[in-house]
Amino acid sequence: MSLQTILLAVALGAAAGILSGLFGVGGGILFVPTLVALGLGQVEAAATSLLAIVPTAAVGVWRQTRFGNLRVRPALVVGVSSIAGVEAGVQIAIRIDESVLRRLFGVLLLVVAAQLVWRSTRPLRGYADVS
Amino acid sequence: MARLIAVGLTAGVFGALFGVGGGIVTLLVLLVHFSTREAAATSLGAIGITALAGVTAYAIRGEVRVGYALLVGVPAAAAAFAGAGLQRRLSGPVLTLAFAALLVCIGVWLIVG
């Protein structure tokens, strides 16, 4: 790993962390392209992104708990049920061609972008009650 | 409860497949009618569990690159301090649209590149 790679990884990681806090994501949507840009394969990038998400999510949870936005029981129900889906996702990821997975990820980014635009053009529920 | 479980299962499949977790926010807003802020905060808790399960499943198959995860993940966690604080002050279509534009650029790069 060259010094340039290390500096780029740190800079992109920091940028992903800020955006993750702003938009309430674990950062994976930005970690994966970052890791692909750094030379990892698509499956490696997905796997590594999940590990990189853990500290970001932990910090986010700690902050959001203090702001009173976190609903613990629903978070646990969603999180624990997701474990059942995880194995299926991993099986698909290791079976399909990596270039197909990479393109599907590109499509996912476009879908997320469209959804963000759609969300921002309609009245936002919940913003008024937190001031 | 059934809806929350459906959200979890869907998030697990897509989260592990793509290495992401943010879609939970949308699902919580759409299916369980959480406010955007509550969905964002609550999804972080769920994502942590999903990510741990995903890392375990991938690590067994030797796909996790721990060094890279630390290089990207630790600065991200530090920066998330700033991000979560900013969220309380910034809300807004402009910011969201800018982020959406960034995602479109990266998405096109991955599809075409």
List the keywords.
heterodimer; A: 131 residues; mainly alpha; 5 helices; globular; disordered C terminus; B: 113 residues; 2 domains; 84% helix
Descriptive notes:
The complex is a heterodimer of chains A (131) and B (113). With 131 residues, chain A is mostly helical. Chain A has one domain (3-120). Helix content of chain A is 79%, strand content 0%. Chain A has helices at residues 3-23, 28-37, 42-67, 72-95, 98-120. Chain B has helices at 2-18, 23-31, 36-60, 66-89, 93-112. In chain B, α1 (2-18) packs across α3 (36-60). Chain B starts with a helix and ends with a helix. The model of chain B has no long low-confidence stretch (mean pLDDT 86). The chains are: A mainly alpha (131), B mainly alpha (113). At the A-B interface, α1, α2, α3, α4 and α5 of A face α1, α2, α3, α4 and α5 of B.
Major β-sheet profile of chain A: none
Strand content range of chain A: under 5%
Q: What would the principal axes of the Cα set say about the shape of chain B?
A: globular
What is the H/E order of chain B?
Answer: HHHHH
* Percent in helix of chain B: over 70%
Number of strands of chain B: 0
Name the structural class of chain B. Answer: mainly alpha
Structural domain tally of chain A: 1
Q: How many individual β-strands of chain A?
A: 0
- Provide the β-strand percentage band of chain B: under 5%
Average pLDDT score of chain B: 86
Count of alpha and pi helical runs of chain B: 5
How are helices and strands ordered from N to C of chain A?
Answer: HHHHH
